[in-house]
Amino acid sequence: MKKIDAKRDGEGHRGPRRKSLAGILLVLPLLLFLLIIFIVPLGKILSLSVKDDDLAPIWPLVSSELRDWDRTQPSEEMFSALAQDMKTSQQARTTSLVARRVNYALPNGRTLINSTARKIASVDGVPPNGWRETFLQADRAWGDLETWQALYQASGPASGFYVLAAFDRAMNATGQIVHAPEENSVYLAILKRTFGIAALVTVISLLLAFPVAYFLANGPKAWRSIVMGLVLLPLWTSLLVRTAAWVVLLQDQGLLNQVLQWLHLTSQPLELIFNRPGVIIAMVHVSLPYMVLPLYATMATIKPDYMRAGESLGATPLLAFRRIYLPLTAPGVAAGCLLVFIMSLGYYITPALVGGASDQMVSYFIAYYTSEAVNWGLAGALALVLIVVTSILYLVYSKIAGTKGSSFA
User: Fold this and answer.
1) Is the peptide bond before 331 cis (omega within 30 degrees of 0)?
2) Which residues sit opposite 177 in a β-bridge?
3) How far apart are CA 113 and CA 363, in angstroms?
4) pLDDT per residue over 122-159, tens digit each?
5) For residues 208 and 290, what is the distance between their CA atoms, to the nearest angstrom?
């Protein structure tokens, strides 16, 4: 009898294990797909935000000397190592790669590196006055600590140069973090613009979506399917097509301006394209379904009896709505706002087609640095900022949602 019970217990334990194994096998293809297509490339570009080893493979001698640099005036050995590396890179025609990296941190760094390397390559042997004087004769900038600080950061294998640059910060010759030069201080303004546009789109989407979701949850059944179809229709249309349609609608001779003038609301066409209003209008149109659906999912679970109970206790319909119905929609409002805000942070096509030069968001500059400027480090740093902010928002939402869920329980 004990053997039979033990056998049954063993079979009982194997049953859940088999189900768990079957579930893992079913999900495994999706996990592998996400790992290969999404996680690995994302991790690669994020690692480039701190990886900074462009100098070491091309100029190994001076990179080795810079690892022990005490941030004082460079020694004769450092100048000698730099001269040997410059001669080697000139022969291999790789000096321009170093010059491009140094130019990120040092104004006119490209010109300094290329011109000095040509002069040094023409020097035979060791000059009588030493390499220090030879470099200073080629360009007095070699006596500045800022020049060597730029080389030090680029020698790698890792540095915070790109991450600091994403916040308009830099490291000076003494190792202190300071504000970047005015001509390079643009990224904080870009980040503020991105978060400002995303916040405004989220607020407008909430104001427009709330009555629509309320109608879907409480309106006549005959009209619900029609309104739901209109809400879902943009999701079935390509984002590029929707954005191009707004370019046609918002232009000076577009349908919207023609209607406004026909109604005598305006005497001349309004500037609605290639500016901030056009970007907001097009982004709200794209984001609206993602606000409506979470709100509707929450409102559909709210029973009408709650409102009737409040009114039976003496509350006016407006007071019952404000004190009873509105707080119950908080999970849907939070989910919709979080979804729309995070999506808005990463918009690229819509601002690029509808907005002007002063309306481009962080994603535009990430694309620019990866495809045109080929500055993968700064692109990775800006992407890292977006991911960190998105993760923080998600954690805050999870904390708030968990607190509210426990309080309702």
Assistant:
1) no
2) 171
3) 31
4) 888 888 888 999 999 999 999 888 899 889 888 878 88
5) 12
Q: Could you tell me the two tokens for 168?
A: 């308009």
Q: Is the dihedral of CA 239, 241, 244, 250 positive or negative?
A: negative
> What are the distances in angstroms from CA 20 to CA 15, 17, 24, 26, 33?
9, 5, 6, 10, 20
What does pTM read for this prediction? 0.82
**What SS3 class is residue 207?**
helix
Note the pLDDT tens digit of each residue in 256-276: 888 888 888 888 888 888 889
CA atoms of 168 and 162, how far apart (whole Å): 10
User: What pLDDT shows up at residue 407?
Assistant: 46
Segment 317-359, tens digit of pLDDT: 788 888 888 888 988 998 899 999 999 998 998 898 898 888 8
pLDDT at 91: 92
Comparing CA positions, the residue from 98, 101, 138, 147 lying closest to residue 118 is: 138
Radius of gyration of the chain (CA): 31
Residues near 266 by beta carbon (within 8 Å), at least 6 away in sequence = 257, 260
- Phi (first) and psi of residue 301, to 5 degrees: -90, -5
Cβ atoms of 165 and 385 within 8 Å: the answer is: no
Q: What is the mean pLDDT of residues 372-393?
A: 88
Alpha carbon distance 4, 159 (integer Å): 65
Helices (H), 346-375: 349-354, 362-371
Apex 90 CA angle, 84 and 96, nearest 5 = 115
Q: Give the alpha-carbon dihedral of 242, 243, 245, 246, to 10 degrees.
A: 120
Backbone angles phi, psi at 56, to 5 degrees: -60, -45
Instruction: Report the C-alpha gap between 165 and 159 in whole angstroms.
Output: 11
Residues with Cβ within 8 Å of 315's Cβ and at least 6 positions away in sequence, in order, are 323, 324
Cβ of 297: how many Cβ atoms within 10 Å?
Answer: 16
170-220 per-position pLDDT tens digit: 887 777 888 887 777 889 999 999 999 999 999 999 999 999 999 998 888
